[in-house]
Design a protein that fits this description.
The chain is mainly beta. Helices cover 6% and strands 42% of the residues. The strands form five sheets. Strands 1, 8, 11, 14, 15, 16, 19, 20, 21 and 22 form a ten-stranded antiparallel β-sheet that branches.
């Protein structure tokens, strides 16, 4: 395999960055309601705070004037609001809407977008050089895994893709990005994570190098089996993630740069793409990266990368 590896470090999406969305906050269609000071809540009631973009669950019956984010005794933070779920750093918390889910953002300099936990038919990214300015990038990607040959096209079931990558976007300091996930009328669309930032190649040499064969994608489930005293057994469903491990052959002259790039993102959740070639979506993971560099000889080196996928 070639065309990799690549690391995308996402920018922080703040209130100043997100200018609008198809999803309201609170999203009443999703059952969200804003917290009201002095209101009497029952155990299990939920309320959101637009200041934190989080949903809180009431743990004790009663009323109070302390906001939920400052009252851990009576409230528990349980998830992001629907509008902000795609930007909370977790794939399993999904923003949802019917037919079309969109955001307009002004993230500053960026050259790529990686998205995960997608459900729908297509995703469109439109970039303007300034808010309301000229379109400099417009690409739509269907959420279908590439088919390797005509036989698979005609006789195999269509496989939905739940992740994608927009790359080669010319960066502008005040760019406006519109991200849209679409589906047929009446169908709910979802987006678990949108990482917008700088896509960096770990190999700068044009001579040779790339991700080696034998790369591994390992699904990891947090579900567990619970056995009662009477022997009854049931599966407790929990979230899941995918880990990746792969090796990269590279010229020794690129080794120090690749190692420094890896060290820069050791504690930063980021998109790690072993190869951008079609048919290897399993090697595109969002998570925490680690690795090691082997200086094999005067002219050769091998970089091994492990990514612990985020749920």
């Amino acid at each position: 395999m070639t065309a990799g590896p690549l690391i995308l470090v996402p920018l922080e999406i703040t209130d100043a960055v997100m200018t609008s969305s198809s999803v309201a906050e609170p999203d009443t269609t999703a059952g969200e309601a804003a917290w009201i000071s002095g209101h009497t809540y029952a155990v299990g009631d939920e309320a959101i705070r637009t200041q934190t973009h989080r949903v809180y669950r009431r743990e004790t019956a009663g009323a109070g004037t302390t906001p939920p984010e400052d009252d851990a005794t009576n409230w528990t933070d349980i998830r992001p609001t629907n509008k902000w779920a795609a930007f909370d750093g977790e794939i399993s918390t999904q923003s949802t809407d019917v037919e079309e889910l969109s955001w307009v953002l002004r993230p500053g300099f960026f050259n790529s977008i990686a998205m995960y936990g997608l459900e729908g038919e297509e995703v469109q990214a439109v970039v303007k050089d300034t808010p309301g300015g000229s379109v400099v990038f417009d690409q739509t990607i269907g959420l279908i895994e590439p088919v390797p040959d005509w036989y698979e096209w005609y006789f195999s079931p269509i496989k939905a893709a739940n992740k994608l990558l927009f790359s080669d976007i010319l960066p502008y300091p005040d760019a406006e990005l519109t991200l849209t996930v679409r589906a047929s009328p009446g169908i709910t669309v979802k987006a678990g994570m949108a990482a917008i930032g700088d896509l960096r190649p770990l190999i700068t040499s044009n001579d040779w190098g790339g991700t080696l064969g034998g790369a591994k994608a390992e699904p990891r489930s947090f579900s567990y089996i619970k056995t009662e005293l009477d022997g009854t057994t049931r599966i407790i469903k929990r979230r899941a993630a995918t880990d990746n491990t792969f090796s990269v052959a590279l010229p020794r002259i690129d080794a120090d740069y690749a190692l420094a790039s890896l060290q820069e993102v050791l504690d930063v959740p980021c998109a790690v793409i072993a190869t951008s070639e079609p048919g290897f979506l399993g090697l595109n993971t969002f998570g925490l990266v680690s690795g090691s560099m082997s200086y094999d000889s005067y002219g050769n080196a091998t970089l091994t990368i492990t990514t612990k996928g985020m749920v």
